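Sample pair:
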Amino acid sequence: MVKRRFNSLRVLAVVGALVLTGCAGPSPNNLQPGVSTLSAVEGTMGQPSMVWKNPDGSEQLAFAEGPVGVETYMVYLGADGKLQRISGVLNDSYFNQIQAGMTKDQVLRKIGPPGAPWTATYPRSNTLAWTWLYCASANFQNYFNVMFDLGTGLVRSTGYSPVMLGRQGVAPNCIQSNYNVGG
């Protein structure tokens, strides 16, 4: 009886590991700048969350792991359809580029879309709030918030707030990747 229970637990552990591996999100590790095409990018990373087509024929694609993932990758394709670069954008370097007066589209092009549960409207203060879950530099989960004026649609302010979901109020651990490939 003990052996049967041990085997059942082993099977559950293996299945759980496979499920978690399958939910790990996009992994751009095997893509090569100047070689990989859009079909290779989508084959590796799935369907993009957002796509921008530029006047010169190049494209920018956002791959967001949200709403509970802590990574968003921006993929840049040249007019020739070849991968130019990939950047992990949910980190202080990109957050510091978000300034008062920016438009929603400018914010989306910098750090991608927030998850649907992380968007809120506050009519009394005429504010739209977008929030991104990310892995802070100390390897704990944190939130980055952007506040927009509802009337103008422009950024009013930005800020950070802690994730207090873990044991004893401690934010869950994570590993910040700061993934970048290409120029």
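The domain at 26-177 is CATH 3.30.1450.10 (Beta-lactamase Inhibitory Protein; Chain:B, domain 1).
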